[in-house]
Amino acid sequence: MFKVLKTEESARRGEFSCAHGGTVQTPVFMNVGTQGAIKGGVSAHDLKEIGCQIELSNTYHLHLRPGDAIVRKMGGLHKFMDWEGPILTDSGGFQVFSLAPLRKIREEGVSFASHIDGHKIFMGPEESMQIQSNLGSDIAMAFDECVENPATYEYAKISCERTARWLERCKAEHDRLNCLPEAVNPRQMLFGINQGATFPDLRIAHMKRIQEIDCEGYAIGGLAVGEPTQVMYDIIDAVEPYMPREKPRYLMGVGTPSNIIEAVARGVDFFDCVMPSRNGRHGKLFTWEGTVNILNEKYAADPNPISPTCSCPVCRSFSRAYLRHLFKADEVLALRLAVLHNLWFYNELMAKIRRALDGDCFAEFREKYSGKLEERV
RNA sequence: GGGGGAAUUCCAGAGCGGUCAAAUGGGGCAGACUGUAAAUCUGUUGCCUACGGCUUCGAUGGUUCGAAUCCAUCUUCCCCCA
Fold first, then answer.
1. Which active-site residues of A does the annotation give?
2. Interface ipTM > 0.85
3. Which nucleotide comes closest to A376 if you measure CA to C1'?
């Protein structure tokens, strides 16, 4: 269930509800816990404290370890990781891109050589739906091919036509599995994914085609894979008019704080990105003043918090000097604190975007912050 | 007291006559990271008026066209025997 509460130009303020966790306020950032955990030692309990509304996990990775059958036996992913809120599972389509050297694509689906031990795994639309059904997530993503950049027009066309056919199969299998009495989450929803690389005509044709297949939401995939930022914005601009107004839009894998602000301005509701957690683990911290590389020597004896304007649990208690020390001393606490801070920032970013939309001042918010939050402090 | 071994650029440790400003680790410094094969990867780490030059390999003196590499003395450290 999705409801647009209000709009400001193309930007939308909305509410989304699903089987778990009540209502998600959008625009929203989904905190990424690929293997059922946020990397850096952050648990689902921590997510509650840092303002996370919805969590994202991965089909391919959980299928390999511990195996979706085990997660199912444990009562589903919510119970397994003790997260009561909504969960979106990515389909494995991104691994078609990120694990390109280890896979082969055919019409039926994709065979992977496991990145862990090399054993062969076949994943097509039906397999991905079956795994996501076993995980019991609230939103299942359609199985797609995230095409690498740059792609030729010919390949992008072949690929996104195949992804459209895969969506039909996903939809059929998803509906079938949801109706089974043993379904872990019978109210699981399905989002379709738009592809077409950097070619507006392919993007638009694909978007028109996939919205004929009834999904609870539609995503834009295959962006932020190396193309210039402006190209990404141009593609969103091109596709957005063809996305259903009454359904949520999800820009997959994006992005920097400014990318998110710009995409909200273009009508996107859902986001997810590895950046706050990965960069956090690598010592790069986001603040309202810009980014802080806590590893830099200049913070060695800095008694201030990461950011003077942040009220996250980390900034409330610890100095830059302490956090830098933890990183230098290889303490796992460093990763945890850095990731907690960054996720707090991302969740707060979304809260501020929502508040700006509520107050009809998103344009000013955008003007004030877009393009500035990535500058070095 | 006697005998033997070693001293290398921040550390450890290669090198044993020219191709050495000196391998490789570590540490330091900096950068990258966008649906997570990432607690990973990359660059850099003597000085300078830098596609070239200058001073380095415990100290001093010597051999040689040429020395971190050979010789002498000294200093320090380690090991073995008494």
1. 90, 272
2. yes
3. B31
